[in-house]
Design brief:
The chain is an all-alpha fold. 70% of the residues lie in helices and 0% in strands.
Length: 211
């Protein structure tokens, strides 16, 4: 996936005793321990955010927000669990929210998109595109039979509204109405099944909603 959980190996299987001490100290409001934890993890979190957003400003913002939320919620920290994983989840969720905003914010979308080099899909991206295509097929299969037939004739066979109308003995306006309704249904299905890949692909310039 584009936003893997283990990208930077920050969720060790074995607890780090030093991290455990820092977690306890931070939970008790120790600012020095918090500063030490920041120095230990800021670079890897920054690298993660930069990889996803391709924006130094947004990456720095993500790191700052991650540690701010950690401090504000320090009393909820569990010393028995690796704090690295907790930091990563905060950063990942924050970056994901940035990408979701970019879907609807043209200025933010442009800012992120034009910081990317010319994008060629790799193996992971091809897998995601395949998954989205499968999701589209599932959505189409859920359409009422008549609407599904009209939609497939339009999108799969490339027939015009007039040609479909003549083949099925209905009016072109009926064909148009059915295609509009089918498209709306498919888009809603994709929005609810897109997971984290959806906003990333949109930001990169690929439109999964082009049905």
């Amino acid at each position: 996936m584009l936003i893997p959980d283990d990208d930077f190996c920050i969720k060790p299987k074995v607890m780090d005793p030093q991290e455990n001490k820092l977690t306890i100290a931070i939970r008790n409001g120790d600012a020095k321990a918090f500063s030490h934890l920041f120095d230990r993890h800021k670079d890897v979190l920054y690298s993660y955010a930069l990889k996803v957003t391709r924006s130094r400003d947004l990456a720095e913002e993500a790191v700052q927000e991650t540690f701010l939320r950690l401090w504000l919620n320090r009393e909820k920290l569990d010393p028995g669990r690796p704090i690295q994983g907790y930091l990563f989840r905060i950063a990942r969720n924050y970056v994901f929210n940035i990408l979701k905003r970019a879907v609807y914010d043209e200025r933010l979308k442009t800012h992120i998109f034009y910081n990317y080099p010319a994008w060629e899909p790799g193996a992971d991206e091809h897998l995601i595109l395949s998954e989205l295509q499968l999701a589209k097929e599932n959505a189409i299969s859920c359409l009422p039979p008549r609407r599904q037939l009209i939609f497939r004739m339009s999108r799969k066979e490339g027939l015009s509204h007039q040609e479909i109308a003549e083949k099925l003995g209905i009016s072109p306006n009926t064909v148009k109405d059915q295609i509009v309704k089918a498209t709306q249904t498919i888009k809603e299905y994709l929005r609810s099944h897109g997971d984290m890949a959806m906003p990333m692909l949109i930001v990169l310039g690929y439109s999964p909603f082009s049905v």
